[in-house]
Structures are given as C-alpha cells and as structure tokens.
C-alpha cells in the first residue's frame, strides 16, 4: 500500500509541476461534479413536494433540476477535455524529462546493460501513458471518494442501512480491480522485456546495415520467427489477464447485486418514506453510482502503474553527471603509474609528453580500450595514479578528467545530421581547418548538406565518416588526443596524409593512438605493448621488432607480406568520395558499413 501512495504522489506532484493550472481546474471541476448526485436528491425531493402542494416555487425548482442535469453533462464534458489536455502535457513533459536525464547520465553508467534497460523502460513508461494515466486516476479516485461521501450524507437521512449498503456496493469492484491490477503489476517487467526483444528483432530487419546483412544471409525469416515468438508470449500474457478479468468480474457482479439488493430492501422497509423521497433517493443513487462506476478501474490503475512509476521515479531521481567544464587545450605531460583496473589491467605504467605520438598496441582483449576508458573517466580505477602536468586526476569526476581529453572511438558514430551540425558537436571552432586536417574537405563542399540516408541525405563510406569524426575531434581541440584505430577505414595514402597533419599539429598536443597497423606504428615516437593487462614491452617500432618478442610475432605477417600481407585490423574500405555539394551523386557513394 505504501508503494501505491508513493507512486500516486509522484504522479500527482509531477502533474502539478507540469501543468498546475490544468490540474487545479480538473480537481476543482471534479469536486463540483462530485456534489451533483447529492444535490439531485435534494432538488428532486423538493420538486416533488412542490408539485404535491402546488407551491409557487415549482417552476423555479423544475428549472433548477433541468439546469443541474444540463450543467452536470456540460461540466463533465469540459472535465473530460481538460483531463485529455492534462494527459498530453504530462506525456510531453515526461518525454522531455527522460531526454534530459539521458543527456545527463554519468558516462561510467553507459557501460552497464542495466542502464540501457532502465532508459528503455523509462521511455516506454512515458510513451505508453503510464505516468499520465496514474495522475488522472488519482483525480478520479478523489472524485469517487467525494461522490461517495456526499451520496452517503444525502441518503443517510432516509435510511442508514440503505446508505451503508449503497457504499458497500462499490467494494467488490475495488477488490476485483485491485487483485487483477496486482497480477498485472507483477508481470509488467516480463511483458516489457518481451516487447523490447520483439522490437529489437524487428528493428534489425528495418535499419539499412543489419537489414542488408540479414538479406545477404537469408536470415530475415529467422528474425521474423523469433520476433513472432516474443509477440506470442506478450499475447499469451494479455489473454490470461483478460480471462482473469472476465472470471473475477462475474464474482464482482454477483456481490454488487447482493449489496445493492440489500440497500433497496432496507430502503423499501422504511416506514416514514414518502413516494417523493423514494423517487428522489433512487434517482440520486443511480446518478451517483453511474458517476463513480469506474472507481474500481481507477483504483486498479493506481495499483497496476505502481511498478513502472516507481522505476521511473528512481530513474528521474538518479544522480546526474556534472556539467562539462571548459576544455584544456594544452597539456605538457601525462603520467600513468601502477594503474590497476579490476580483473583487466595490472600495474600499468606509461608516460606521454607534449609533441609526442604515442601508440598502445596489443592483441584483442589485452586491455587497450579499458586503458583509454580509464584515462578519460568512463571506467573506474581500482589503484594507481593518473597525473596531468602534476595534477592528480585519478579519482576526479568525469567532467574534470574529460576536459583534458578528446577521443575518437573505434566504433565512431554516424549521425544523420547536416555536415555543419556534425562538426558543431566537436566545438565552435573553424570547420574549414578541421575538414582540411581530417581530409574531409575532399568531399565536403556544402556544410548544410544532410547526411544519412534515413533522412534522405547523402550516404558516405566508412572512411568518409571516420574523417568527419576526426574533424569533430579537431574542433574540440583538447590537449590530449586519443585515437582508437583512427584510420581503420581509410586507405594507405589517406592514412599518410592524416598522420602528416597530426604530426604538424602535435607540437603542443599529446597524441595517443591505438592501432594494429604496422604502417601507422612506424610513425609513432613510442609504442607500449599490452599483453594480458600488463605492459610487457615499450620502445620505437624498430626497437620492439628487433627484440623478437610478442610484438614481433604480431606484426611479422604485415612486414614480410606473409599470407597476402593480411592486416589484423581488417580490410580497408575503398573510399569513393561523395560530393556533398551535389546530392544527386549520393547514389554513387553508398555507405559501405558492412
């Protein structure tokens, strides 16, 4: 019960912050409407007596009854429309709040699958209307309670037992809906999980890259069948719930008939009751019960939405990352000493100085990505120190660490924005220089050109997207650059051009490169070789290759051309520049992401 009150209060306060005037108007109208059944009992009774006695007030009372009925219907329509507006406002603000929270998630949480699950659940809660339904259900319950009290007060003057049994007639509906909604709440997360799996499988058959690969594998039918399996599970759960509702509704009907029958039996046995009072009371009872006939549903909604709303409340109240700090554009020295990351990195030591190109190399799973993630603050450090220009940032916040770094991840993103918007993500600097340094000026001639075929824009090759990512990093312009396979999708000539520019601008920068290309590593001032979470070798390319150790073993095939000179980083995409000033050419620059 405590959880129901907590989630209801959360929904009500959220509605109050979102649309205070609309919520106030809805509550006021609900309270006014709640008094109508009791007023109807009094007015109909007074009208009946006036008719019997030929009173001069008969016409006035008749007009008041008509006005009451017409006013009730009009105000009910207005209240319903205001309720719709309130729900729309709550849903709109709910989505905006989720967007805000997602944009403020601490980066270290993004690595956890539970975070992704919480975000998706939060989006589904606000998109499915759980939050808005809970808020309006609270107002409906307030309305029903007020109607019940006023109806009891108006009937109790004629017969106490009739008043009591009339109110008791509402209890079976409350019990049934409470029970069914509790069952629904228990299976909400399971149902939600089935929906997410089905939607994920369907999305893979829609988006270009995975859909194309599935078509080439003739695997779309398997994905369709798997999605259908999850949708069948959802349908099975829904059918079981509706079957449960039908079964319990039969019990509810029998119990309600019994209570209402006892109320009428007690009513007709009242010795002092007149025909006029009886008519007025029955009219009031029927009007009141009709007004609050869905109170069971409203209470059921409070119960049913408790689980998703408590989850949403926890998500809304979760800690936010600090706002970004100004970028530090120059750093003289980065020093890592005895760095440990639980179960991955052990006693890592390295030093990088301004003007140097440093490389981190190792087999897959050696800990390279973990190391750079720990440096920029997206992975926790268990022990050791990280200092920049003598400042210890080992346990500093992400915002404090990140201001020193700019990172080009291996899995760079392909944002379906305009060229200008893509570049502004990096910073407010001069886009012309950034495009030149990354080599993107060869295919970018219009900053307002839309990218991404999803929005009808130009498709780019993997190498072209990678060049735009490098341009963004240049616009951020931090003192320390971390490049994870920065030329993996770029041909050898383009690679030479990019590293020549990096060498030119690295005079006041520290550049750290993660790479498996021998051609790239030959340009490095120093290489650190990671093996099983430890740095086992360091030196220049020639020094390490001459040692005949693990580094030599890893790069022998590339240097000697054995087995077709296979590159461990994988094949390089053939860059076919798309002229971004001429959208009609986009078909010639297909997005070779496969």
Question: How would you characterize this protein structure?
Answer:
By secondary structure, the protein is α/β, with parallel strands linked by helices. The chain has 3 domains: 1-158 and 275-280 and 291-321, ABC transporter transmembrane region fold (Up-down Bundle), CATH 1.20.1560; 160-272; 333-588, 3-Layer(aba) Sandwich (Rossmann fold). The protein contains 22 helices and 10 strands. The protein has helices at residues 2-18, 20-34, 36-53, 58-103, 113-127, 130-156, 160-168, 171-204, 208-216, 220-268, 275-291, 295-304, 306-316, 368-376, 398-402, 419-424, 431-438, 462-476, 492-505, 518-521, 541-547, 550-560; strands spanning 333-341, 345-353, 357-362, 383-388, 391-392, 405-408, 480-484, 510-514, 526-531, 534-539. It has a 6-stranded mixed beta sheet with strand order 6-7-8-3-9-10, with helices on both faces. Helix 3 (36-53) runs antiparallel to helix 4. The radius of gyration is 35 Å and the shape is elongated. Mean pLDDT is 82; it is low at 562-594. This is ABC transporter ATP-binding protein. The chain crosses the membrane at residues 56-75, 135-155, 161-180, 250-268, 280-303. Belongs to the ABC transporter superfamily. Siderophore-Fe(3+) uptake transporter (SIUT) (TC 3.A.1.21) family. Residues 328-557 form the ABC transporter domain. Residues 135-304 form the ABC transmembrane type-1 domain.
Concise synopsis of the structure shown:
The protein is α/β, with parallel strands linked by helices and 594 residues long. 60% of the residues lie in helices and 10% in strands. It has 22 helices and 10 strands.
């Amino acid at each position: 019960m405590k959880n129901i009150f907590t989630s209801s209060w959360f929904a009500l306060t959220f509605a109050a912050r979102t649309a205070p005037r609309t919520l106030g108007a809805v509550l006021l109208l609900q309270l006014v409407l709640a008094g109508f059944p009791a007023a109807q009992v009094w007015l109909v009774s007074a009208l009946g007596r006036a008719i019997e006695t030929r009173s001069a007030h008969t016409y006035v009372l008749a007009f008041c009854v008509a006005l009451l009925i017409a006013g009730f219907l009009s105000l009910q329509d207005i209240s319903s429309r205001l309720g719709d507006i309130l729900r729309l406002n709550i849903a709109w603000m709910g989505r905006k709040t989720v967007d805000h929270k997602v944009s403020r998630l601490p980066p270290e949480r993004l690595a956890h699958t539970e975070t992704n699950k919480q975000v998706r659940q939060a989006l589904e809660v606000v998109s499915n209307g759980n939050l808005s339904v809970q808020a309006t259900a609270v107002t409906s319950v307030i309305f029903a309670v007020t109607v019940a009290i006023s109806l009891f007060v108006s009937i109790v003057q004629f017969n106490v037992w009739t008043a009591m049994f009339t109110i008791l007639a509402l209890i079976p509906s409350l019990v049934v809906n409470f029970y069914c909604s509790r069952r629904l709440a228990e299976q909400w997360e399971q149902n939600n999980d089935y929906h997410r799996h089905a939607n994920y499988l369907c999305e893979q058959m829609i988006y270009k890259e995975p859909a194309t690969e599935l078509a080439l594998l003739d695997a779309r039918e398997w994905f369709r069948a798997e999605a259908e399996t999850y949708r069948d599970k959802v349908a099975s759960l829904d059918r079981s719930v509706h079957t449960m509702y039908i079964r319990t509704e039969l019990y509810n009907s029998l119990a309600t008939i019994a209570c209402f029958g006892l109320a009428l039996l007690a009513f007709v046995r009242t010795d002092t009751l007149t025909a006029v009072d009886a008519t007025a009371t029955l009219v009031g009872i029927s009007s009141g019960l009709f007004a609050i006939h869905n109170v069971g549903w409203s209470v059921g909604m409070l119960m049913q939405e408790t689980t998703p709303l408590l989850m949403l409340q926890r998500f809304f109240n979760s800690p936010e990352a600090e706002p970004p700090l100004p970028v530090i554009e120059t750093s003289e020295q980065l020093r890592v000493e005895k760095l440990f990351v639980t179960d991955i990195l052990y006693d890592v030591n390295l030093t990088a100085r301004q003007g140097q190109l440093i490389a981190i190399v190792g087999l897959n799973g050696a800990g390279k990505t973990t190391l750079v993630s720990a440096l920029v603050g997206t992975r926790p450090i268990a022990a050791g120190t990280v200092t920049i220009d003598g400042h210890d940032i080992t346990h500093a916040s992400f915002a404090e660490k990140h201001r020193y770094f700019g990172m080009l991840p291996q899995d760079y993103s392909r944002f379906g924005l305009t060229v200008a918007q893509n570049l502004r993500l990096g910073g407010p600097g001069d886009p012309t220089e950034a495009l030149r340094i990354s080599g993107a000026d060869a295919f970018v001639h219009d900053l307002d050109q839309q990218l991404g075929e999803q929005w009808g824009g130009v498709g780019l090759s993997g190498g072209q997207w990678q060049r735009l990512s490098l341009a963004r990093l240049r616009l951020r312009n931090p003192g320390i650059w971390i490049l994870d396979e920065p030329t993996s999708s770029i041909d050898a000539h383009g690679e030479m051009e990019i590293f020549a520019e990096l060498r030119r601008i690295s005079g006041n920068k520290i550049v750290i490169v993660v790479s498996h290309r021998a051609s790239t590593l030959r340009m490095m001032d120093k290489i650190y070789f990671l093996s099983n979470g430890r740095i086992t070798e360091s030196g220049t390319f020639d020094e390490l290759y001459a040692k005949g150790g693990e580094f030599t073993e890893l790069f022998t095939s590339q240097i000697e051309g054995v087995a077709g000179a296979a590159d461990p980083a994988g094949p390089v995409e053939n860059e076919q520049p798309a002229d971004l000033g001429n959208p009609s050419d986009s078909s010639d620059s297909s997005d070779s992401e496969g």
